[in-house]
Specification:
This protein is α+β, with helices and mostly antiparallel strands. Helix content is 30%, strand content 20%. The protein contains nine helices and twelve strands. A hairpin with a 2-residue loop joins strand 2 and strand 3. Helix 1 crosses helix 2 and helix 3 packs antiparallel against helix 4. The longest helix is centred in the N-terminal third of the chain and has 17 residues. The model has no long low-confidence stretch (mean pLDDT 91).
Length: 308
């Protein structure tokens, strides 16, 4: 196929108003940008029913190569130093700093940039809590209770996700037939008894594994940055308590590269209490969604998104 021929791929399984779908779309885009680094890979959104579907622009790529290339690339993350620092993000500052130096060295010598970007999305090595552990990402939803481990689940997904599961996540329909692990970024992962027909502990977890796997790859778009000697902020989030932590994300009409997407996701105007798609329309943003992160016992979940 000619390098000048434009290939567009509609990621029809993913909807912008589903947090997991949005993150999975970003992860697909970031992975494609890494695989076809020399090409001008871009992401846009188009109206699809009552929501928006992501559209990837892949110059000169044979669509038949898309899923196999994604799967092969994603499998290389299995056992990566960034995913095996620990099972969870309850990591002492000294150990996190040592791990950061390893991945930073790989970044600087040009052998691996992914690890450094992921570690920067996990937490900050200069801000610690009362236990001497790092202050970590607002995307963290578990810390070992019930044998649910944030980093270990990422590594398992890297190892076990199949090409067919990626196919379902990207092109749909989502059948929710895959077992755990699950990252708890889908509102459907809120399994409280009051919201279900059956008692949750007797009802096995069912998820879309490929979507969870791809969503992990979106985290470098949301680095953790220090705000003081003891506090951090995760890009896209406001609030710190269980009753006021919100994640807000935009949908844009233009076809953007990865650097431009990073800038749009970090727009301060998105985090205003009165943020709206109408107010942000001059910037090319056609929709804005917001989800609350809630704490249920020892786990965190995200509520269904609300349009702003």
């Amino acid at each position: 196929m000619s390098a000048h021929q434009q290939t567009t791929v509609r990621l029809s399984g993913m909807n912008a108003d589903n947090l997991l779908g949005f993150l999975a779309a970003l992860g697909t885009f970031r992975t494609a940008s890494e695989i076809w680094r020399a090409l001008n890979v871009r992401l846009s959104w188009e109206v699809s029913g009552s929501s928006y579907s992501p559209i990837l622009s892949l110059p000169g790529i044979d669509v038949a190569e898309f899923i196999p290339s994604l799967h092969a690339h994603l499998q290389t993350r299995t056992g990566h130093a960034a995913l095996t620092i620990d099972k969870d993000l309850k990591i002492p500052l000294a150990r996190f700093s040592a791990a950061s130096e390893v991945v930073a060295s790989s970044f600087l010598n040009g052998s691996d940039s992914w690890g450094a970007r992921m570690v920067a999305a996990f937490g900050c090595g200069i801000c610690g809590n009362e236990e001497g552990n790092i202050e970590d990402t607002a995307f963290r939803t578990m810390s070992g209770a019930g044998h649910q481990h944030f980093l270990e689940f990422m590594n398992l997904l890297a190892k076990e996700t199949t090409a067919d599961q990626l196919q379902e996540a990207i092109f749909g329909p989502w059948r929710y037939r895959d077992p755990s692990p699950v990252m708890r970024w889908d509102a459907a992962d809120d399994r409280r008894y009051a919201l279900r027909w059956d008692e949750p502990s007797k009802d096995p977890v069912r998820t879309v594994r490929g979507a969870n796997r791809l969503a992990i790859e979106s985290l470098p778009f949301f680095p953790v940055v220090p705000q003081s000697a003891s506090t951090v902020a995760t890009t896209g989030f406001t609030g710190r308590r269980s009753n006021d932590t919100m994640f807000t994300w935009p949908v844009w009409s233009g076809s953007l590269d990865a650097d431009s997407v990073s800038s749009v996701l970090a727009l301060p105007a998105l985090q205003r209490a009165d943020a709206s798609s109408a107010a942000l329309a001059p910037l090319g943003i056609c929709a804005v969604f917001r989800s609350q992160r809630i704490t249920l016992g020892k786990y965190r979940n995200f509520t269904p998104a609300k349009p702003l």
